[in-house]
Amino acid sequence: QLQEQQKEIENMMNAIFKGVFVHRYRDVVPDIRAICVEELGTWMRSYAASFLTDGYLKYIGWTLHDKQREVRLQCVKALQGLYCHRDTAAHMELFTSRFKTRMVSMVLDKEPDVAVEVVKLLTLMLENMEEALTEEDCQSVYPVVYVSSRALASAAGLFLYRRLLDPQREAGRELSRNGDNRTFFQLLLAFFIESELHEHAAYLVDSLWDCAGTRLRDWETISALLLEESPTKGLADQQEKALVEILAASVVQAAKGQPPVGRSLAKRV
C-alpha cells in the first residue's frame, strides 16, 4: 500500500513538474527562471532519490547559458549545494562530464559576482570529486589571482592554495610548522616564477592573504630560505629575487591591511 501511494505521489509530482516547471524555467521574466532553478536545487538536496538524476540535472546545465545574471547565479548556487557533499557529488559524474567545459569557462563571466561563485563551485569540485578537474581546467582558474576584483581574486587564491600550494596535500603527510611553510614557499615560488608576472607579487600575496595569511607572515622561514648557502638546498638567483618580492609584498600587506593599487574591494557603482 505504501509503495502504491508513493508511486501515486511521484506521478503527481511528475505531472506538476512537466505541467509547470518545464514551461516556467524558460519564462520571459528572469526572476521566475531564477526561482525555478533555485527550487530545483532545493528539491535535489531534500529529495535526492527522485530528483538527483540526469533527467532533472540537465535543466540546470542548460540554464547555465542564460543571458541574465541572476539566473546564472542561482544555477551556480544550486550546483554548490550539490557538490559540497561527497555523497551528492558522487551522483554528478555524467552532469560534470557534459557541463564542466561551460562551468570552467564561467570563471570569466562578465558579472564578477557570478564569477566568484563559479570559482567557489570549482573549489568544491576539487575537494569532493578528486578527478573531476584536469590540470588544463585548473590552468583556466590560476591566472584569476591577478584580476582587479578582490573578491574574485581571493576566491581564486583559495582554489590555487587547495590545488597547488597546500603542503599537506602535496606531501600527503604531517610536517612540522617550519618544514610545512618551507614547502609552501617553494611551491609558491614555482607558481610565481612560472606565471611570469614578476611585478605582480603584491596581487598574488593579496589573493592568498585570506586563506594563507599566517603562512605568508612567517618571515622567519623566508629569511632562513634567503640566507641558505648550501648548493643543494639554497635558492637560485631568480627564486631569491621572487621570494624577496613576495616578502616585501607581505610586509606591506601586514602593515597597511589594504589591497594593492588598482584592486577594488567592491564593485564600483
From TrEMBL:
<dbReference type="GO" id="GO:0030893">
    <property type="term" value="C:meiotic cohesin complex"/>
</dbReference>
<dbReference type="Pfam" id="PF21581">
    <property type="entry name" value="SCD"/>
</dbReference>
<dbReference type="InterPro" id="IPR011989">
    <property type="entry name" value="ARM-like"/>
</dbReference>
<dbReference type="GO" id="GO:0005634">
    <property type="term" value="C:nucleus"/>
</dbReference>
<dbReference type="InterPro" id="IPR020839">
    <property type="entry name" value="SCD"/>
</dbReference>
<feature type="domain" description="SCD">
    <location>
        <begin position="21"/>
        <end position="106"/>
    </location>
</feature>
<dbReference type="InterPro" id="IPR016024">
    <property type="entry name" value="ARM-type_fold"/>
</dbReference>
<dbReference type="GO" id="GO:0000785">
    <property type="term" value="C:chromatin"/>
</dbReference>
<comment type="similarity">
    <text>Belongs to the SCC3 family.</text>
</comment>
<keyword id="KW-0539">Nucleus</keyword>
<dbReference type="InterPro" id="IPR039662">
    <property type="entry name" value="Cohesin_Scc3/SA"/>
</dbReference>
<dbReference type="GO" id="GO:0034089">
    <property type="term" value="P:establishment of meiotic sister chromatid cohesion"/>
</dbReference>
<dbReference type="GO" id="GO:0003682">
    <property type="term" value="F:chromatin binding"/>
</dbReference>
<protein>
    <submittedName>
        <fullName>STAG3 protein</fullName>
    </submittedName>
</protein>
<dbReference type="InterPro" id="IPR056396">
    <property type="entry name" value="HEAT_SCC3-SA"/>
</dbReference>
<dbReference type="Pfam" id="PF24571">
    <property type="entry name" value="HEAT_SCC3-SA"/>
</dbReference>
